[in-house]
Design a protein that fits this description.
Two copies of one chain form a homodimer. Chain A is α+β, with helices and mostly antiparallel strands and 468 residues long. Chain A has 14 helices and 22 strands. Chain A starts with 28 loop residues before the first helix and ends with a helix.
Chain lengths: 468, 468
């Protein structure tokens, strides 16, 4: 958490009333809809402590009231948190309003002030982004300190539509349309499929007071520009625009779940700064999604142009492209590797009985056989090295042996070649020379990071031969 | 084809010049881009006859010029077709312009007039939709009569963006974002990823004349409303809006290919007015996509609300919903059936040696055994009937026997029950009574529309038991 500004009065809850107000009235129709939405989507488990993000605007005030009225049905405990953004002069008035509201309702309130404009200047970010960052930092801090389980946000259907539209305009793939999920980690959005006008109607019915969020009317903020300039025009084409955007959101959410299953099924092989997957049965869409997932894990998400150009390369049997600083995507045989460039070990001398690490492959030199994958060595100058230009065994190039054994190109430069003096005696899975086991010195392969790949690759090769 | 209006002068090509103009100049940069796009996406095979849809506007005039200049590289033959929409008074001027243009360029031109306003009044559709319908009907007719292979359309990146945005605003799922494909059956769009301004620049460089499409400035048409009112505002947020929409289009195209593969893999079982698929390993997204595909095949595409409510039902072990006139979606065990309501056979008397059809199941009564699935009958009153309330064999309900054999609910009412007088002797895959084979009368099951399902279902059951 960075520079959260002056804390006023303190992070300790302002009110600790023993009994919260209990509403005995029959539920309002909107309350029933929210209750159903929460239950159907399993947003809030029984017994949860739920921290309501309370700006004092109509959305969050209604959210707090609705949750208070259905909290006995949900069997939950409610708290509230308010961050004074100090952006506008009226912020102090909002703060006072929220304090009074929680006092009246008997809700524990956590409050803090953050100098958003200063934070944005210092971090050279927009006011909208800065306010969001500080707000979420604050909410997460309060959630932990108040032992709350969930943070309830008052985002509504209009917010959802605006966000989707914003993403479309800025440029997004399909999964980018999955924003503002009903449940997203510890964040829940009970009002997500309720429109702003329905919320305002509720406030009128219940005669609720709330503060006007003045930033709403400032079209300098992109979000407000979309709300006040773009949406009214789009609604001339379709007055029920929010439903259209919700439809897209719904479809994208289903797709995201489908992709999570794909990632699960794809059995990514992760070792050090590299992720490998087998593309045998995958289509272009699936490969692209796995690439997007993996590069995001490396904190280097692919942009659209990169995705487009890689998808053109996929039909080639092998390729190698740099997609970010020292991050490469490489294809060899039926594998794709996403890897960070790193220094490779190219030579290791084998002179003691101990373990040796050669680019992740672990060998053990010993007077005993330690695994089924081993070779007997002479009492001589033994070492492991990587391949060199022109490497041959007899008349056959090492490269051709590796191709024949379907070692993907991207593994060949770091592949261990075991030598006895100048003679190549062993290349795991590729070549083994017949040596008399007289010296009592054995080199065993005891950990092999890519063994499963080489086995899959071999399997594929056999299948290909069978087809011929 | 409906009411194509007056045909002037005739469908026969106006110009049949032996030599088309061959351009010897080096290719323009835009021509090179289009050539590359056509080649990379394999839009137009060598030797094709390509009919260019020529309105006379800047897009189609440039398309014709570009294709003329790259036609020797592509080894194609070009023709053109122009439909006079008769919407505006200037239409006749456009027609004259196009005739003169093709004369100058030596391109065969097919021309026709259609009274679009009249067609729209008569069919109660919008002018935009009516013009499109008549235009495509005309182009397809000319394509066939001129023995052309492909129709080249001049849609550009802006058209693509406008269409996507229009669909988003009206409401669409993800695959709805796949509109205007580079190649779509016999239609090809060589300019699809070229922006309107790039096309206008080309026209300026090449000093090309073209007519102004006045309807472009009429914001009554939704397309033009989007072009002139919506896009300029969205471009205030992102000046490169078309690229964003192209990105979404690209992603949706990949997804569509993925879905085609899914449909291929899902092995839909189609019999009469029913499609069944096995949902065992499918996720919600895949099931929803298959449902969308199947209901479209029945010409009753699901709308968003239906999809949403069905996706809520999917977790239930069985359900049955009517989604359109007499069209039902039913789930039983691990199967989903999409079916049209139809009259079911409930009783068939077996009195001659011949074949009997009972709701698609074909039985043969004979003095020989005709398949491995058979029963011997007594010389008595034999018949096949459907189940009746309270049906039992001994003390066991038929319903329980069927459940035990994992016959999906949706098949049970039409399932054949073979009776000998009043005694149930055979329910295929469910029950067979021991009968002495003395009479020499055999009933053999020779075609079984759902056998593969019952076998899959049994397989699943065995797996479940093994797990227990």
């Amino acid at each position: 958490m960075r520079r959260l500004g002056v804390r006023v009065p303190s992070l300790a809850p302002i009110f600790l009333l023993s009994a919260q107000r209990v509403c005995k009235l029959p539920l309002d129709e909107l309350e029933i809809r929210v209750l159903k939405f929460v239950q159907e989507n399993q947003l809030i488990p029984h017994g949860s402590r739920v921290l309501v993000a309370l700006s004092g605007g109509v959305d969050s005030v209604c959210l707090l009231h609705i949750l208070l009225n259905i909290k006995s049905k949900l069997q939950i405990k409610l708290l509230a948190a308010h961050l004074n953004h100090m952006i506008r002069p009226s912020a102090i008035h909002d703060e006072k309003f929220v304090i009074q509201l929680c006092k009246n309702l008997g809700v524990e309130l956590y409050i803090e002030r953050a100098d958003v404009p200063k934070f944005c200047r210092e971090n050279k970010i927009g006011i909208e982004e800065g306010a969001r960052t500080l707000r979420y930092n604050f909410l997460e801090k309060v959630r932990k300190e108040s032992s709350s389980d969930l943070i309830a946000l008052a985002h509504n259907l209009n917010d959802l539509g605006e966000t989707i539209l914003h993403r479309i305009v800025r440029g997004t793939g399909l999964t980018g349309l999955v924003c503002m999920k009903p449940k997203d980690g510890v964040k829940v959005r009970p009002l997500l499929y309720i429109s702003r006008s329905e919320i305002e109607d509720y406030a009128r019915r219940k005669k609720l007071n709330y503060v006007e969020d003045e930033s709403n009317y400032d079209v300098r903020y992109t979000r407000n520009f979309i709300r006040h300039r773009v949406l009214p025009i789009l609604k001339e084409i379709n007055p029920d625009l929010e439903s259209s955007l919700k439809q897209l959101h719904f479809a994208a959410n289903l797709l995201e779940k489908h992709l999570l299953k794909l990632i699960e099924k794809s059995r990514l092989i992760q070792f050090q700064d590299r992720v490998i997957f087998y593309i045998n049965d995958l289509d272009e869409f699936e490969i692209v999604e796995l690439l997007k997932y993996c590069t995001e894990k490396f904190n280097e998400p692919l942009n659209y142009r990169q995705i487009e150009s890689i998808s053109r390369l996929l039909s080639k049997s092998s390729f190698s492209v740099c997609v970010a600083d020292k991050l490469w995507i490489k294809k060899g045989f039926q594998f794709i590797s996403i890897e960070r460039e790193r220094n490779k070990i190219s030579f290791v001398k084998l002179d003691d009985f101990k373990e040796y690490n050669f680019n992740g492959w672990i060998f053990k030199l010993s007077d005993r056989i330690e695994s089924e994958n081993y070779i007997a060595l002479d009492k001589n100058k033994n070492f492991i090295r990587s391949r060199r230009p022109g490497d041959k065994i007899g008349k056959i190039k090492i490269k051709d042996l590796m191709i024949n054994s379907r070692i993907p190109e991207f593994l060949r430069d770091e592949y261990p070649i075991i030598c006895d003096d100048d003679k190549i005696v062993w290349i795991p899975y590729v070549y083994k020379c017949q040596v008399r086991e007289v010296s009592g010195i054995f080199l065993s392969l005891i950990f092999d990071p890519y063994g499963c790949i080489l086995k899959m690759s071999g399997l594929e090769r056999r299948k290909r031969f069978e087809r011929q």
